[in-house]
Amino acid sequence: MRRIAFILGSGLLLSVALWNSVMWHLQRFWGASGHFWQAQWERLLWNFEGKEWILFITGAALVPGLLFWAFNGLLLVVDTTGKPGCIARYRIQQGKNQPVDPVKLRQSIRTVLSNQYMISFPMVVFLYPFLKWWGDPCRRELPTFHWFLLELAIFTLIEEVLFYYSHRLLHHPTFYKRIHKKHHEWTAPIGVISLYAHPVEHVASNMLPAAVGPLLMGAHLSSITVWFSLALIITSISHCGYHLPFLPSPEFHDYHHLKFNQCYGVLGVLDHLHGTDTMFKQTKAYERHVLLLGFTPLSESIPDSPKMA
């Protein structure tokens, strides 16, 4: 017992020391560059004085949207050509989408663009007066580093709760056939179809889980821009179909598209609590659900059993 207590205590002290060291360096960097970013922000406010709503739409809608298409544009090159091979070799579901069906892809892209410009954009515009009343997202002072991290943590937890339960509700037979089945047309997903959904689903499961956090916190535009951008990139990674080195593992959500009745959440916390990942935990995909820190595809180092393959 003493040995276990010593090991656990030493590990805890080491973790705390490492965390404090990392936080100190990040805070120092933030402080050193803080004056620069504050000056740039004040210059933007001066240039858009009286037209802050344009600044808000640019940061909350246009910047995340451009990042979404830049990232998925690169993935689409691999999806449609199978090249470069150094990326294609990391495909999770081997033999699927090689190459992707061009007709199906064009239809999906049209739906994604419609969701972005006919639903997401108006919702962001509609969000601005509420945020302005609550705390003004374009206020002069940028958030501190620690407050920014706290906001991101709260946004993530809120998204996990709202996405899990709204997503699971959409799998109820009443809603699945009419609404959610559209998204599951892709049993082997690709990045761009992360926003391929029925309009009701796009509002309930894509937009609201991401928007509620900033609204409740009265977030600054800088936090909103980073959060929306991260949310779009992460959901693209979750759907991309490639388990790439040094990027978050997409095995969890890829398995959901493969089996439909497992892995409903983003973080997996609520799936663990509700037991909706039990089948997933018995698969090789679960063993591969880690951050890949090398360049050997996990499908090669941890292959499916011959029966599964």
TrEMBL record:
In alphabetical order, the GO MF annotations are: iron ion binding; oxidoreductase activity
* A Gene Ontology biological process term: sterol biosynthetic process
Q: What's the short name of a Pfam family annotated to this entry?
A: FA_hydroxylase
Q: Which domain of life is it from?
A: Eukaryota
Q: Which cofactor does it need?
A: Fe cation
Q: Where in the cell is it found?
A: Membrane
Task: Please verify whether the record's keywords include Transmembrane.
Answer: yes
TM segment ranges: 53-78, 117-135, 147-165
Domain Fatty acid hydroxylase: from-to ranges: 153-276
Q: What keywords are annotated for this sequence in UniProt?
A: Lipid biosynthesis, Lipid metabolism, Membrane, Steroid biosynthesis, Steroid metabolism, Sterol biosynthesis, Sterol metabolism, Transmembrane, Transmembrane helix
Question: InterPro entries recorded for this chain?
Answer: Fatty_acid_hydroxylase (IPR006694), Sterol_Desaturase_Related (IPR050307)
Q: What is its main location?
A: membrane
> Quick one: a GO cellular component term?
membrane
- Specify the protein name: Fatty acid hydroxylase domain-containing protein 2 isoform X3
Q: Which organism is it from?
A: Octodon degus (Degu)
- Point out the gene that encodes the protein: Faxdc2
